[in-house]
């Protein structure tokens, strides 16, 4: 947090506000636990898809001449420049991780239940984050 500029702080505040609002507006249904097996299975699939999708797309776009820049938390995520497109995906990954983590912890503390949908969001966000890191590592010297 020491190295964050105004954009980084605003992004963190937006994620916090959206996650807190989702907790306030959340209506827990007792029947949600019946779908946990479904959500846990889907979690594995979305993790693997995100893990494979981002490195392959990054590599494919770099073959067509698009130069990528390393994503930076202090950059504006809404950029029309393809080289900075990973900033948006990094922001979304942190948002999904935060949402899933807070929702899972909230349900676990308040209702003593496992919330599969929250775990699905958490695992998907981690998959996106790792996929971006793998894509950057795969490009190696070609990244700016």
UniProtKB/TrEMBL annotation:
Regions crossing the membrane: 12-28, 40-66, 86-107, 119-139
Record keywords, A-Z: Membrane, Transmembrane, Transmembrane helix
Protein name: Uncharacterized protein
């Amino acid at each position: 947090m020491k190295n964050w500029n105004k954009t980084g702080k605003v992004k963190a505040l937006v994620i916090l506000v959206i996650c807190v609002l989702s907790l306030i507006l959340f209506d827990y249904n007792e029947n949600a636990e019946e779908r946990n097996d479904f959500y846990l299975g889907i979690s594995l699939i979305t993790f693997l898809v995100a893990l494979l999708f981002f490195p392959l797309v990054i590599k494919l776009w770099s073959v067509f001449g698009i130069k990528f820049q390393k994503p930076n938390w202090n950059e504006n995520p809404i950029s029309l420049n393809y080289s900075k497109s990973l900033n948006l995906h990094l922001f979304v990954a942190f948002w999904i991780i935060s949402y899933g983590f807070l929702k899972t912890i909230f349900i676990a503390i308040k209702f003593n239940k496992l919330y599969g949908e929250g775990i699905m969001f958490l695992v998907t966000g981690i998959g996106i984050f790792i996929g971006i890191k793998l894509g950057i590592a795969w490009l190696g010297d070609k990244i700016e």
